[in-house]
Amino acid sequence: MGLPITLSEIAPRISAGAFILNSGLGKRGADEEAAAGMHGFAAGTYPFLKSIPPQQFAQGLATAEIVVGGLLLTPFVPTFVAGATLTAFSGGLLGLYLKTPGMRKPGSLAPTEQGLAIAKDSWLLGIGIGLMTRGLIERRPRVTVKKANKLARKQAKQAAREARRAAT
Fold first, then answer.
1. Chain segment 70-90, per-residue pLDDT in tens
2. Does residue 111 come out as left (phi exceeding 0), alpha (psi in the -120 to 50 range) or beta?
């Protein structure tokens, strides 16, 4: 039984997964000031987060990043699942970029100097959508050379039987 990923999926999964996992591991020990900063930035865009204490928010964000990064790095996680998870995660990041004042130049999607750090995360969305697309395409069973040869032999035998029957 093969893994549910192909060689072409390994590089994007490793690059995005390692990046996000490292970010999550770095946030595990966030001090109160760092937690308050992360919380304030996110709660400014997503008001429902205001009710969560900053330290709890930082720990939750760290855990979410570790889970998303680990999921991408785990080869037996199906490609579509990995892509959907990454797309949802990166959608939240891009929501911060699109909704936070001062992140974009007026009337444009182009980032300001302050928005550049978040705008660059658009590559995560691209990888997520690419993985989801690949996962949808690859839902069909893959035909390996070995399977194709076996099927061809079976079809040749069937054709030979039918030819013998027709000759008699």
1. 999 999 899 999 999 999 999
2. beta
Domain that holds residue 32: 7-141
Angle (nearest 5°) at CA 91 between 30 and 34: 15
Q: Output the pLDDT for position 18.
A: 97
Q: 3-state secondary structure string, the chain?
A: CCCCCCHHHHHHHHHHHHHHHHHHHHHCCCCHHHHHHHHHHHHHHCHHHHHCCHHHHHHHHHHHHHHHHHHHHCCCCCHHHHHHHHHHHHHHHHHHHHHCCCCECCCCCCECCCCHHHHCCHHHHHHHHHHHHHHHHCCCCCCCHHHHHHHHHHHHHHHHHHHHHHHC
The 10s digit of each residue's pLDDT in 3-45 is 667 788 999 999 999 999 999 999 999 999 999 999 999 999 8
Q: Between the ranges 47-61, 103-117, 145-159, where is the mean pLDDT highest?
A: 47-61
Is 25 inside any structural domain?
A: yes
- Distance, in Å, from the CA atom of 34 to the CA atom of 140, rounded to the nearest integer, reads 46
Domain count, the chain: 1
